[in-house]
Amino acid sequence: MKNNSLEKITEYIQKNDNYLIIGHIDPDGDAIGSIMAFKFLLDNLNKNSILLLHDDMRKEYKILFKYLKPKDYYIYKNDDELSKLNKYPNAIVLDSANIDRLGNFKELIQGCFKVNIDHHYDNSKFGDLNYVNSNESAVGKIIYDLTKTIPIDIKKPLGTAIALAVLADTGSLKYPNSDPDSFRLIANLKEKGIDIVEINRFLQSFSSLKYLKLLSKGLANINIDKSGKIAWLVLSSSDIKEIGIDDNEIKSLVNYPRDIRGVEVGISFVEKQDNFIDISFRSLNYVDVSDIAHKFNGGGHPRASGTKIEGNLNEIVNKVLTEVKKNV
User: Fold this and answer.
1) Of 116, 269, 280, 313, which sits most exposed with the smallest number of CB within 10 A?
2) What is the pLDDT of residues 56-80, one digit of tens each?
3) Which domains does the chain have, with CATH numbers?
4) What's the whole-model pTM score?
C-alpha cells in the first residue's frame, strides 16, 4: 500500500461522515492524545464520530475527558455489544503499527474504510488511506499538521490533546526525538492559550499512592550490567499483588533504569499476570531497540519499543538481556 498525503486524507474526511476513532491497546499518552485530538478535529468539522476505548480511562485522563460527553466514546465491554457500532462505515486508526494492535476492535473495523495515520517506521500500511511519517516525534504532531490543511481554529480541547500527545512522546521535550518542529508546536499552542504547565504536571505526576509504592519496589529492584550500559527493572506478579494495584495503572517504569547516567539501554520487565511479562525498551543514543523488540515479536521505535512474552520471568529476563548485550 502506498503512502498518501495529508491533503488526500483531508479531502476524504471532508467528503465523508460517521467515523470510529481508535488507537492501540495499552495506550500511551500519544495514542490517547491523538484519538482525542481527532475527535475534537471532527467535531470542529461537524462530523459524527465516536472514540473506541479499550479500557475505562476517564478518571486517569480527566484532563481530556472533561471536554467529552458519554455519547462521544464507547468503552469495550464484550464482543456482543460491538454490533451497535456497525453503522459507522469509516475508521480513523492512530498510532498503531499494525491492525493486530487494535485488540478487541480489530474485527469490528475490518469492513470499514480505514484511514491509517502513524509514525512507526514499521507500520504495515493496512489502511485504505495511509499517512506514515517516522520522522515525526508524535502522531499528535501529524494531527497538528493536518489542521493546517483544513484549516480550523485550534481551541482549548484540540490544542490540549495535541500538546499532551507531543509532550508525552517527547518526554516533555527531553527525548532525542524532540526536533525543532516539536518545540515550535508547543510554543505555538502556548501562544494560543493552551496550558502547557498543566499538561506537563499531569504527565509527570503519579497516578496514585499505590503507583508510588509500586515504583519504590521497582526502583529497589533495578540492576545494571558490568559495562554500566544496560540497566533493568523487574516487577513480579507477586510484587504487584502485594501492592494491590490495577495493572492498567502501571506505565512508564522503563524510564528510570534508562535515565541512570552512562546507561544506553533501559529495560522494564513487569509481570502483570502470572507468566505474562510486559517488556519495555528505551535507548539513549545508538542502540535500535526496535530491532531487539522484533526478535521477541514486538516492535516500536528505534529509541522506544516493547513486547509481551509468556513464560517464566527469570528465564525471559536472561534471554532478553543476552540479546541486548549483543547490541550494546
Assistant:
1) 313
2) 999 889 999 999 999 999 999 988 8
3) 6-204 (3.90.1640.10), 209-325 (3.10.310.30)
4) 0.89
